[in-house]
């Protein structure tokens, strides 16, 4: 189409520009310069492309040779493009591809997709491809045989006939987070929620804005006789009373967790309480600046005989100046400085830039802020009485509960990409819901720091809790390094007072996967929680689509285990004839009829984080309902190139052939085939809609950028979308 032609023309311009930047006076480029110009990752395909483009065999490429070859690929028919593909694979130019050439090509494909497989698997893949395509059993593949084999994959021929620009395209720019306080930043905070909660969110935003505006107007009207500056200052002060109390109310985690179990959870978007806290914080700072500026303006305008100088008014407490003992100007300036510091230190640029500790410690100044507010505002205590009392009660109860139990980390498993899997002794009477999170404190790492993590084990797991912690900031890196050091110096094989059985939950134990190092230990820790998330909506859906990106799988690990536990409970089996039937009484807590779980991960190593859990879920599904598809897994590896890329076509076809033959994926060992690249959301959701298994709800945990993409597709299919802030 026109779009494809335009993209091809743009790509040829890019190639021409790259060539011009690199070519010397002779206007020709060498193999090394060719690799640099087209940003080809590995040498095998670069060498093959170079050899085929170098039509005169001179050992260097002219711009005419390069563009002539590329135009032939872009505008040629599928047979011509297949001929080029065959020549790439026919390394020795003999006119046929033998087993050794296939192995060399597949090894190059693996490197291009940032993957590694054992030699035995590589041999099995090359044999699968050879056996499928070698129709005359000659031990090699000819061009007609290759063409006949690829006709079984029409989508490949379709891609070859559309465009070849993707074969050597430059890497796509990486997704950038919105800049702090940019238009995208505000859009994400104001509009980034599900369609279902949009009405409730707008009602809450409207009530909040109306309440603030009403208080501001009433305060200003009451003092209008004393000038516009003082009227504005008083109005802003009234608005600050409400919003400073709201700041505390929105962080009552225990109270909000309890509210989620009541009918009020349907009326208020409780899952957005942190975002609400942020928005109220921005308004508090804006009102505080206006309040202070108006007071300074009023003080400057009121200078005259008998009036106190502005400097003395600001720096010395005096009766009649407002606040306790006339300290309003001084406490006001201190409050403004603290609020500014808290805002700067809590911006996403600081928190996501690996400086979570800066945010954490600066936010502890909220105690000083509330004390100063009580000294500064004569009526603030009336607004703060209920939320402040609840906040104080929550903190005292939490502190007492945390210190009562002597908890231990029983195992630390170091996973690829610096992920630490902690197995923690489960406290007695510790009840939580799938998707809940806890605050963790490890005194050996930092005595006073508490950090939130989703619980990745199911509530039905009786003796232990799992946490998966990715090393992204200072504290999380210290956790990984601490347990790495323990491993290097040898860990205690069996903590005192704990038998082997007590330290393990036999049914739920996660097996050691490749790249996983499992070690028993006994490290003291404290937990604060659990705190609730809106995961209950997953269980009350009809057809749930769960999408996790990267470490965003963590809350879904707990949810998936719990779903399968409840599904197992729903199924009954006769011990003599093994006949299965569904309970007539449906589980009131779970109305699910179908679950699709989609995990998008960057590379092969990341798949190892939860590989054994996914394998266990597949096994349970097969045991409970052979051939059934109540739970369907979909895995995507973004570093892997797709079938449309000549640098991966052979590998992906071989993986498909071997997966069909062995009924397992060569990359993970699961029954589910790992798909290369990113999901085609239109196709994924089209397949979900075609299943007609009830109303579809999509739950996503991952980056805001991907959330926007998925939300757009959900709207076009009429699916409900929720971005879970686990």
Automatic annotation (TrEMBL):
Membrane-protein topology: Multi-pass membrane protein
Going by the UniProt record, its keywords in alphabetical order are: Calcium, FAD, Flavoprotein, Membrane, Metal-binding, NADP, Oxidoreductase, Transmembrane, Transmembrane helix
The entry's localization annotation reads:
Membrane
Tell me which CDD domains the record gives: EFh (cd00051), NOX_Duox_like_FAD_NADP (cd06186)
Which top-rank group of organisms is this from? Eukaryota
Q: List the residue ranges of the region (Disordered).
A: 494-519
What positions does the domain FAD-binding FR-type occupy? 402-537
Q: Which SUPFAM superfamilies match?
A: EF-hand, Ferredoxin reductase-like, C-terminal NADP-linked domain, Riboflavin synthase domain-like
Give the range the annotation lists for the signal sequence.
none
Domain (EF-hand): residue spans on this chain: 41-76, 77-112, 121-156
Q: Which GO terms describe its molecular function?
A: calcium ion binding; superoxide-generating NAD(P)H oxidase activity
Where primarily located? Answer: membrane
The cross-references to PANTHER family, in alphabetical order and at most eight, read:
NADPH OXIDASE (PTHR11972), NADPH OXIDASE 5 (PTHR11972:SF58)
Name of the protein this chain belongs to: NOX5 oxidase
Q: What is the lineage of its organism?
A: Eukaryota, Metazoa, Chordata, Craniata, Vertebrata
Task: Identify the gene encoding this protein.
Answer: Nox5
């Amino acid at each position: 189409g026109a779009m494809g032609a335009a993209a091809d023309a743009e790509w040829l311009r890019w190639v021409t520009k790259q060539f011009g930047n690199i070519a010397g006076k002779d206007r020709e480029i060498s193999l090394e310069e060719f690799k640099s110009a087209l940003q080809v990752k590995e040498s095998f395909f670069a060498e093959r492309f170079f050899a085929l483009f170098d039509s005169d065999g001179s050992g260097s490429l002219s711009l005419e040779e390069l563009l002539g070859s590329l135009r032939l690929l872009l505008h040629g028919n599928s047979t011509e493009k297949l001929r080029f593909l065959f020549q790439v694979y026919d390394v020795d130019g003999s006119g046929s591809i033998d087993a050794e050439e296939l192995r060399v090509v597949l090894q190059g494909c693996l490197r291009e997709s940032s993957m590694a497989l054992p030699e035995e698997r590589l041999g099995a893949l090359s044999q699968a491809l050879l056996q499928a395509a070698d129709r005359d059993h000659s031990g090699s593949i000819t061009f007609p045989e290759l063409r006949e084999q690829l006709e079984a994959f029409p989508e490949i021929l379709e891609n070859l006939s559309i465009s070849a620009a993707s074969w050597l395209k430059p890497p796509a720019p990486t997704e950038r987070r919105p800049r702090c306080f940019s238009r995208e930043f505000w859009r994400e905070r104001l509009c980034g929620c599900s369609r279902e909660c949009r009405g409730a969110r707008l009602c809450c935003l409207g009530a909040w804005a109306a309440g603030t505006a009403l208080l501001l107007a009433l305060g200003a009207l009451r003092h209008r006789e004393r000038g516009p500056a003082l009227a504005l200052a008083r109005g802003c002060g009234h608005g600050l009373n409400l919003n400073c109390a709201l700041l505390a109310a929105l962080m009552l985690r225990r109270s909000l967790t309890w509210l989620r179990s009541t009918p009020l959870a349907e009326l208020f978007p409780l899952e957005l309480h942190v975002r609400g806290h942020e928005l109220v914080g921005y308004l508090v700072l804006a009102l505080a600046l206006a309040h202070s500026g108006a007071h300074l303006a009023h003080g400057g305008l009121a200078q005259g005989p008998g009036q106190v100088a502005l400097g003395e008014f600001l720096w010395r407490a005096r009766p009649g100046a407002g606040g306790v003992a006339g300290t309003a100007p001084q406490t006001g300036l201190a409050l403004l400085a603290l609020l500014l510091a808290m805002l700067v230190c809590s911006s996403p640029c600081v928190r996501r830039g690996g400086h979570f500790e800066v945010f954490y410690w600066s936010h502890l100044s909220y105690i000083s802020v509330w004390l100063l507010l009580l000294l500064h505002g004569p009526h603030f205590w009336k607004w703060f009485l209920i939320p402040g009392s609840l906040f104080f009660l929550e903190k005292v109860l939490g502190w007492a509960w945390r210190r009562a139990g002597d908890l231990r980390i029983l195992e630390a498993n170091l996973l690829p990409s610096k992920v630490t899997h902690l197995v923690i002794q489960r406290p007695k009477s510790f009840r939580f819901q799938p998707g809940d999170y806890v605050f963790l404190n490890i005194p050996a790492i930092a005595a006073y720091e508490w950090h939130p993590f989703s619980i990745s084990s199911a509530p039905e797991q009786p003796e232990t809790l799992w946490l998966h912690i990715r090393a992204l900031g200072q504290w999380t890196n210290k956790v990984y390094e601490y347990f790495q050091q323990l491993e290097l110096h040898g860990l205690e094989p069996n903590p005192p007072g704990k038998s082997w059985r007590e330290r393990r939950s036999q049914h739920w134990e996660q097996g050691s996967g490749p790249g996983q190092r499992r070690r028993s230990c006994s490290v003291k820790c404290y937990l604060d929680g659990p705190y609730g998330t809106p995961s209950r909506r997953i269980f009350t859906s009809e057809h749930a689509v769960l999408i996790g990106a990267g470490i965003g799988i963590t809350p879904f690990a707990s949810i998936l285990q719990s779903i399968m536990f409840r599904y197992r409970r729903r199924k009954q089996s006769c011990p003599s004839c093994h006949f299965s039937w569904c309970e007539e009484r449906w589980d009131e807590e779970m109305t699910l009829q179908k679950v699709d779980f989609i995990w998008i991960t960057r590379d092969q190593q990341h798949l190892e984080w939860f590989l054994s859990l996914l394998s266990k879920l597949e096994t349970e599904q097969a045991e409970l309902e052979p051939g059934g598809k109540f739970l369907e897994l979909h895995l995507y590896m973004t570093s892997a190139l797709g079938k449309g890329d000549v640098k991966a076509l052979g590998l992906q076809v071989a993986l498909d052939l071997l997966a069909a033959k062995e009924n397992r994926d060569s990359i993970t060992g699961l029954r589910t085939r790992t798909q290369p690249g990113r999901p085609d959301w239109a196709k994924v959701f089209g397949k979900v809609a075609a299943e007609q298994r009830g109303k579809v709800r999509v739950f996503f945990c991952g980056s805001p950028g991907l959330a926007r993409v998925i939300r757009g597709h959900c709207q076009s299919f009429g699916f409900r979308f929720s971005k879970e802030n686990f």
